[in-house]
Amino acid sequence: MVKRTFIRTAGLTTVMAVMLTGAMASSAFAAYDDMDAVSLGKELVGKDYTVGGESLNGGFDESGLNYYVYKMLDYKMPRALVDQFKMDKPLIKSMSSVKEGDVLFFGKGAKPSFSGIYIGNDKMIMASSGKDEVVKVSTQSYKNQFIGARRILSTNDQKRVMLVLTAQKYLGTPYDFGAKYGQTKTFDCSSFMKWIYTKYDISLPRVSRDQSKEGKFVSKSNLDTGDLVFFTTPDSKGKIGHVGMYVGDGMMIHTYGAGGVKYSTIESGWWNNHYVTARRVIN
Predict the structure, then answer these.
(1) Model-level pTM?
(2) Most buried of 78, 139, 184, 254 (most Cβ within 10 A)?
(3) Which residue, among 64, 21, 262, 32, has the nearest Cα to 164 in the 3D structure?
(4) Which residue in the list 8, 151, 194, 254 is annotated as catalytic?
(5) CATH architecture assignment, domain 4-156
(6) Is 254 tagged catalytic?
(7) What pLDDT digit, counting tens, does each position of 32-45 carry?
(8) Measured on CA atoms in the order 80, 83, 88, 94, is the torsion positive or negative?
(9) Which of 189, 193, 196, 204 is catalytic?
(10) What is the Cα–Cα distance from 278 to 142, expressed in whole angstroms?
(11) CATH of segment(s) 169-280
(12) For residue range 6-36, what is the model confidence (pLDDT) as tens digits?
């Protein structure tokens, strides 16, 4: 499910760049670091509003934004707003119950007039005709017009989105080899992975070499957002000594050396040359 660039955090390997998962198969997003619907939506902020638009170059209208983001995530979605609201996906009736990646609809009765992609913290991304661009806005500003939301992402894709979003919160946290597990002031590579995955009921051993035995093998060409990727290091004597989380578009989030938690490519340079294997721990 990857191979799209920056968001498919699940089915997401193309855009989480947020919502979800990942990086994308589309060359248009080759610069994106991750790949979920939330993240993808965030990267589109500032793009032009265009009636009938559904592309980066052509701009977006309300339903065109939804259609584009989830197409990048390999989800089939109708093009028309009214048909998107009628999709055979779980209907969320309360705004207090929405999750990252849900598509929120606003209007009267069962007739939507505009929509947005929820990105968490009472915020959504929407193509605004009034602002003439894609904007990030508070959902509370429109709560009286809320008529429901559709949960597009599967349970596993939702988990992938949340893994990436959670890991992103620690960008810049210092690297410390042998960092004590359970605290978040510093991490080493495996304590970082263990900390993030444990939050979503995925138990990992403490050491990267042991983590490489978890889940099931996945080839580098079939990586999906949320997969663990493993490497040798200068001190590991040819054995696995490093781990990161794949986020799509050939990128991983990990911690190593200067800068601490960061994004790095696994398709060129050191990490490409020292890549060993990958494991899928999301069932």
Answers:
(1) 0.71
(2) 254
(3) 21
(4) 254
(5) Alpha-Beta Complex (3.90)
(6) yes
(7) 333 356 666 667 88
(8) positive
(9) 189
(10) 43
(11) 3.90.1720.10
(12) 333 333 433 344 343 333 323 233 333 333 5
